[in-house]
Input
Amino acid sequence: MAAGSLRRVGILTGGGDAPGLNAVIRAVAKSLMTKKDIRVIGIEDGFQGLIENRMRELSWGDVSGILQSGGTILGTSNKANPFENPTLRDGKVVRLDLSEQTLRNIEKWQLDAIVCIGGDGTMTISRRLVERGVPVIGVPKTIDNDLYGTDITFGYDTAVSIGAEAIDRIHTTAQSHHRIMLVEIMGRNAGWLALGAGIAGGADVILIPEIEYELDAICAKVEERSRIGRRFSIIAVSEGAKPRGGEVVVSRIVKDSVEAIRLGGISIKLGNEIEDRLGRETRATVLGHLQRGGSPTAFDRILATRFGVGAADLLVQGKFNQMVALRGDQIVSVPIHEVGGRTRTVPPDSPLLAAAEAVGTCLGIAC
Ligand code: F6P
Output
């Protein structure tokens, strides 16, 4: 499509909710409505609404007053996929290709382009839409911060702050009862969230999926602290952490989800092992979805606004099939086909790991 001929833009939020989704919706819609006579169509429940033709035009009023609110005014789904949609048939989940009906719905609503706000799963589906001729702009969201192509995703800063506050609060009981307290932090197979929250909360031990931990090393750290009069220890553990040569702890398999494995429970398992080994009282707290809830931080509001404005700029320029990204302090764009299916994990030379080690934090290996 030629630049300047953009008239109707669809917008959807896919995958798990993250603080800042509404800030992006607002920024995309307000910049498009302000700059040009472009109509913005909200697609309900992620790709599910695109498949089922559930959309509505958004007004200025619809996107006002939502900057600070968590969740998404459009709803989301981490299951819907126009190319392999999980559908219940005779008590069994089968995957149906509903792409033709999805493309017809896009045509019915005369959408010239779609803004897809989401993580890896959303970008992978977006890439397939692009291959079918649908102009798409991606916006990188996830509290896990594991999306390839951008320095940071929106939602991460808020989740780190929630994790850090939880660790602060756990200190109270840990100190009073002289306990070993484990705080389990989300993030799937990337340790960004546990690492960020652990550093910000001053955890004594931080365990992330990228560094397989050794029970001996963790116990040695706890004992060393006791010897110097620190009778409690706080362990920030990523839900995807695993022992050397061992496996992650899976809480359940959600068969009809884009990413079926749900991690969870490592803090309880590891806490029991530490208690058995040291004979010291341990307790585990799984933060779970608290980390995605509530209002985005100011940082996430600013980032989400910049991403939304960046997406609108790309649309107006007619530069499609890109994901907006942050590199340094600049908003840039990366081709969507480069993004999906790749996980950005914490590299061994991460300055965050170096900083944690420099202040005496144990990373689960001889410390
Ligand atoms: O990807 C975001 C995330 O919150 C992960 O950190 C977590 O493992 C997963 O989603 C939980 O998924 P659900 O909301 O489907 O339980």
In short: Residues 16, 78, 142-144, 186-188, 239, 262-263, 292 surround 6-O-phosphono-beta-D-fructofuranose (CB under 6 Å). The first strand starts at residue 8 and ends at 13.
